[in-house]
Write the structure tokens for this entry.
Amino acid sequence: MKKNLTLLFTLGLASSVAFAGQTGTEFQDLYDLVHDWATGYLGRAIALIFLLVGLGVGIVRGSVMGAVGCLAAAMCLLIAPSVVEGILTAVI
């Protein structure tokens, strides 16, 4: 009984791994559009706006913490698409 459960569990894991990388192409256009926005001039403009707003908040509050948070958000916006692309295309 225990052998059968182990075999069934192993086969179940193997089958999910086999189909994990196969997706439909119906969302490819959406992915390309959002990826191009994030890595193009729109993403750069939003990152710059984050930085400017952070600097403004930092000046008003008299603290640099507003700029640090917005700088981190800007960096995430610029770096995240390449990280996601690397994760999704990684081959184990």
Q: What stands out?
A: The chain has four helices and no strands. Residues 4 and 10 are 10 Å apart (CA to CA).
